[in-house]
Amino acid sequence: MNIQSLTARFALVLSCVLMTTGVAQARLLQCAPFAREVSGIEIRGNANTWWGQAEGRYERGQAPMVGAVMAFKAIRKMPVGHVAMVSRIVNEREVLLTHANWSRPGGIERDVRAVDVSPAGDWSEVRVWYAGNGDLGTTVYPLAGFIYSGKAPAAAPADLPVQVIATAAAVSVHGTTPVAD
């Protein structure tokens, strides 16, 4: 084997290693780390554990507040639950959420609609805006409740790879037929 052949092989191996490292560093955002970052609520682990972990550490309740984390219960199609930060209160039955990993893997959505559809109006069940429909999704998701941070919400950190999927604050609830969520 001559020096040119050896150099070419080394360059090939090095480029493969560098490409693999780049892919590994381009991580997809999950809902829990993103919610922790933007809300300041220091809970770790899967989203379905946040409600229980918050007991005794953070105030919890059934009313949305700006900066609070909406904690979704685990269901069959969402076995590790979901967490999202409330970015704005629209009215007593509608809020806007900022969250990650909902409509697209790793994507961030800002100010998307979540509507309380519970019969009692107690925020125990919601429908959430879904990019695939361009409207509220068809699934009704059960909530554990809201975890209150006690501080103002943070903006998304500038160093995170952000892919904003949509801002759906003005999407109508009526007039469209959702296809799936």
Major beta-sheet overview = 6 strands, antiparallel, barrel
Oligomer: single chain
Spatial sequence of strands, sheet with the most strands: 2-3-4-5-6-8
Proportion in helices: 10-25%
Mean pLDDT: 81
Order of helices and strands: HHHEEEEEEEE
Global shape: elongated
Task: Calculate Rg over CA atoms.
Answer: 20 Å
Provide the β-strand percentage band: 25-35%
Number of strands: 8
Ends distance: 57 Å
The total of helices stands at 3
Tell me the structural class: alpha+beta
Q: Uncertain runs with pLDDT below 50, 5 residues or more?
A: 20-26, 156-180
Summarize the structure.
The chain is an alpha+beta fold.
Q: Can you put this structure into words, describing what you see?
A:
With 181 residues, this protein is an alpha+beta fold. The chain has 3 helices and 8 strands; from the N terminus they run αααββββββββ. Strands 2-3-4-5-6-8 form a 6-stranded antiparallel beta barrel.
Features:
elongated, alpha+beta, 181 residues, 3 helices
Topology:
Elements: H1 3-25, H2 31-39, H3 50-54, E1 59-61, E2 69-72, E3 82-91, E4 94-100, E5 108-116, E6 125-130, E7 135-136, E8 141-148
